[in-house]
Every structure is written in C-alpha cells, then in structure tokens.
Specification:
Layout: E1 2-4, E2 10-16, H1 25-43, E3 48-53, H2 56-64, H3 66-78, E4 81-87, H4 111-127, E5 134-139, H5 150-174, E6 177-182, H6 193-203, E7 208-213, H7 214-219, H8 224-233, E8 238-243, E9 245-249, H9 255-262, E10 273-278, E11 292-297, H10 300-303, E12 315-321, E13 331-333, H11 335-346, E14 355-358, H12 375-395, E15 399-400
Parallel strand pairs: 2-3, 2-14, 3-4, 4-5, 5-6, 6-7, 7-8, 8-14
Antiparallel strand pairs: 1-2, 1-15, 9-12, 9-13, 10-11, 10-12
Helix pairs in contact: 1-12, 2-3, 2-4, 4-5
Length: 402
C-alpha cells in the first residue's frame, strides 16, 4: 500500500512473505497465488505491497535467467502486487522444522553473503514498479556474536564496502537506487541500533544503513526516540523499518506468567529473551545514556530454567506476535513501542524512512490454540495486521493512495 506523507513523498507499506517460506521460484509463484493475492482481495485493494523473501535458490534462478525475472514481474503485475523491498536476512531453510542459529549463516565475513545480497539487489532492480526508483533490502546484522573476531570483522567491513560499490554500479546501469540495511537483533554483533553506528560509520556509504525492526528494538529495551535520534545524529540512513511486536511479561516472577511464557517456547525459531537491572554508577564512569544493564538468554526456554535471568523487572522475548492481537493476560505485546517508533519514523515533517514492512513470520509457531488452522484464517490475520498499520499511518496524517 502507498501513502502520501504531508511533505509530498510516498511511503510504502508491505508485508513480508517469509511468513510463507519457499525455497524455489515455483514456491514463490505459489505464494503469490495462494497467499498474497488473497490478502490483497481481503483488504479490498487494487494494489498491495509485499516484501519478498527470496531464498538462495530462488534468487539464483532469477538472477541467472532474465526470462524468469520478467515472468515474476509479470505475475506480480497480474495479481495486483508490487515489490519495493526484499528481506535478505534468512539465506535458506527458513521453513525448516528447526531454524534457530542457522538463520545467521552465512554471515557477512563469508563470501556467500555478499554474493547472495548482490543477487538480491539485481533482482530487485528488475522488480521495482515503473514509477519507483528506490528499493531496499534488509540483511543480517553482520553475524551472531560468537566466533566473531577482528579478522572476521575486517572481512565483513570489506564485503559491505564492495556491496556499496556494486550498488553504485547497478544504479548507473539501471537508474534504480538500492540501499541495504543491517537489521539489529538481540544476540548478534549488531544487537542494538547503537551497536550499528560504529561499523556503519566505518563503511561510510549512504547505500548501507539500518533496518529498524520494532520487535528487536523493544526486546533490547531500547527507547525509540533515543535510538532514532542517535542514528540521525550519526548520519546513519534508516533504509527501512519492519513493524513487529515482541512478547512482554510484566511480572516474570509469577508462576502464572512463567506458565504462559512456556507456551511460546517452541522448537523452530530462536526467541532471545531480555530483562534489565539498574546500573549502579562507579566512580566517574556513570553512563547516563544506558541507565540499566541488559541481561539475556539465547532462547526463551533457557530463561525459564532456574534463575538464568533476573526476574524483578519485565521480560521481553524475541517472538513476533500478531500486531492486532496481543497475547492473553498475563502476557501482552510491545505494540506501544511500535507505535512510538512509527510516530518518530514517519510522523515528523519528513519521513526518516519510506519503506515499512509488517513482519510477523511466527504465525505457525504460536501456541497451538492461537495458530491459524486454515489458509483463510492466515489471510484474515495478515489483513488485520495491515489494517492496523494503515490506521496508525493515517492517524499520523498520511493519506492512503489508490
């Protein structure tokens, strides 16, 4: 969907197709038929934006076969769909029975990550609508935090510099301006937006910036205003934002709360869990920008085991819950963080980003009683999320376009 910002620019809203994981081009085409077009029809729209996730094999098929790329573009047009952004974070296997740590491979120190992202950029240049010249791709925030030393950091920085050069060349060739955003995520080298500033300043290229995922932002207990102000002051581009909500437990010490959380501890995805404790200043080293210590576990089941996390303050888990339907009490979601961040992103005199993407990929990982049991139920759920996002945008003064 497209919206006119009060400054006259167009803001794009899409939903990410990693909720319908497919590894091949045939699978992607089936997504469009079975899921994306029905969502568009459910919303009563002539045109719907989707943020495509293209696995390695699908991307390779498209970049090596111009006729296949033209065919995909024609299929998008035929079904009333458009693409201005890609999710380039998962490389392959996102539909596997167990994803967990695999989603962070290959990382930006591995040549495969650069080549895959270059392929995605070439594909996106061919998929952009005729009246759109700017595209975005979200990507892995460098690497998972373990086994990442100075040598791998140097390789990752060099790969991003090479990527920026390739994007420059691609614009000269196609006239399409593409940008790539590292997506901060708990447990990664770039865990927070603040962590992104140093490596991106080292790359120092306007085509390489940040993708702000509001679930990740909330899970790390980042204040949206502080985070976005810091990125703006550091001149780090906000390439896109993924609109998502985390799982929030206000009183994790309660047995009732722990029982409710345990229902979300499932075996497929990693659900990094975080909490905070007050920071006690020592000497003159008081850090006024970080008044709390962040504590965490790699997964939700670890947090629920014994005393792995302090439990005097709220917990948040990296579990993308549906935007329009917060979990039942005693749990809730961080929709308030999303709303605050969105107001800062597009509610000012000029948008900080023009690409927004609803990304709730965990519908089938929800507790069994909350999962959609039929394709139509999933369609209704995604449409409800987009309807909520649309209402938030129009409340900020943006005007929905046909």
């Amino acid at each position: 969907m497209r919206f006119r910002h009060p400054d006259g620019s167009v803001v794009h809203l899409a939903y990410c197709t990693n909720v319908h994981p497919a590894e091949t081009l045939d699978g992607v085409l089936a997504q469009l038929r079975d899921h994306c077009e029905p969502v568009r029809r459910r919303l009563g729209r002539d045109r719907l934006g989707i943020g495509l996730w293209l696995a390695r094999d699908a991307a390779h098929a498209l970049v090596t076969d111009p006729s296949a790329l033209r065919g995909l573009r024609a299929e998008l047009d035929r079904r009333g769909l458009e693409v201005v952004t890609l999710n380039g974070f998962p490389y392959e296997g996102f539909g596997a029975q167990e994803v967990k740590y695999r989603v962070y491979q290959p990382d930006w120190a591995d040549p495969e990550r650069l080549e895959h992202t270059t392929s995605l950029a070439r594909v996106l240049a061919g998929l952009l609508p005729d009246d759109v010249t700017e595209g975005s791709i979200s990507t892995l925030p460098l690497a998972w935090c373990t086994a990442y030393d100075d040598a791998r950091a140097d390789k990752a920085r060099a790969a991003l510099v090479t990527l920026a050069e390739r994007l420059d060349a691609l614009q000269e060739l196609t006239g399409r301006s593409l940008r790539v955003g590292l997506e901060p995520e708990p447990g990664c080298v770039v865990e927070t937006t603040r962590d992104a500033i140093a490596p991106l300043t080292a790359v120092a290229h306007p085509r390489i910036g940040v993708c702000v995922d509001t679930c990740h932002l909330a899970t790390s207990f980042e204040d949206p205003h502080t985070a976005l102000d810091a990125l703006t002051e550091a001149h780090v581009p906000i390439v896109k934002s993924q609109l998502s909500a985390a799982l929030h437990a206000e009183h994790p010490r309660s047995p009732e709360v722990r029982e409710a959380l345990a229902a979300f501890a499932e075996p497929r995805f990693l659900h990094q869990t975080r909490t905070t404790t007050p920071r006690i200043p020592t000497g003159t080293s008081r850090n006024t920008t970080a008044p709390h210590h962040l504590h965490g576990t790699d997964d939700l089941d670890e947090a629920l085991t014994g005393h792995a996390l302090p439990d005097a303050a709220p917990w948040r888990a990296h579990f993308h819950v549906p935007l329009h339907a917060a979990p039942a009490a005693p749990l809730t979601s961080t929709l308030d963080v999303l709303t605050t961040a969105l107001g800062r992103l597009v509610g000012g005199p000029h948008p900080l980003t023009r690409h927004l993407e609803v990304e709730t990929y965990t519908w089938q990982a929800l507790p069994p009683e909350l999962r959609p049991r039929a394709r139509a139920q999933l369609t209704d759920g995604i449409a409800a999320e987009l309807t909520l996002a649309r209402e938030l945008l129009t409340d900020l003064g943006l005007k929905e376009l046909p």
